[in-house]
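Bumping with the actual sequence this time:
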Amino acid sequence: MKRLLFFSAVILFLSGCAHSGIPKTNLSSSTNIKIPSASVITSTRKIVHNESKAGKLRYTYDAVYPVFIGGNIYVITHINNTIKGVVKQEHDNFYNNLTRITSWTSHDLDNFYFLDYAIPFQSSELVVVRFDTSEYVWGGRQNTWFTTINFDMKTGKQIKLVNLFLPHSNYINKLSDLVIQNLTSQINAVGGDTSWVIKDASPYSYNFHNFALTPKGLQFVYQRLIEGRFTVTIPYSKLQSLLDPNGPVAQFIK
C-alpha cells in the first residue's frame, strides 16, 4: 500500500509539471528560506533551466522562483499560481521576441535570459516578492528590470497601489514629488545624469505600479544602464494624511 501511494504521488507531480506551461525542468532545488517565526508559511526555490543550440534560435533560459508551502491551501495556491503566471509570461515574451528576431536575421547569436527573486518582506499579513530579470538578446546590450508583487496573506490577492490610499487623495502627485526629490539627491551624490528622473517619476500611475511594502516605507527600485540601481524608500509618515488607516499599510502605521 505504501509503495502504491508513493508511485501515485510521483505520477501526480509529473502530471502537474507537464501542464504548468513552464519550460522543461532540468534542475531542481528545495532550499528553505528563513522567514519570521510568527509565520507558518515556508517557501522553496524552484529552478527551471531550458536551452537550445540548434539553428538561429540559440538561447539559454534560467529562472528561479519561490513556491510557498503551508497556511491556508486556497490562499497559497492562489499566490503560487500568480507567481507561475508571471514566470510563464516572462518566458513567453523572451521566446516570442527571439522568434521574431531570428525570422529576419541571418546571424547566429547566443541569447541569454535569467530571472531570480528576493523576498524583501514577509509577515503573517503580507509577503512581498521581487523578481530581478536580465536579458541579453541578439548581441545587444543587457536589459535589466524588476517586477514586484505584494500579496495579501489573508486572501492571496495582489495588493495594488490604489489599495493603500484614501479615495480622491491625489496620492500620485505627492509620490511623484517625493520620489523625484529622493532620486535626484541620490544621483547628484554620485555625479550621475538626472535627466531621466522627471520622465520616469512623473505623476502617472504606470510609473509607480512596481512598489514594495516594507516596515520602513513604500519602496521603489530604479535601474539605469550607466548610473546603476537606486532604491527609493518613502516613509509612511510623509504620506500619513493620504494613506487608508484600515488598508494594507495598517500593520506599519499603528
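The C-alpha cells above came from a reply further down the thread. The chain has two domains: 2-152, 161-253.
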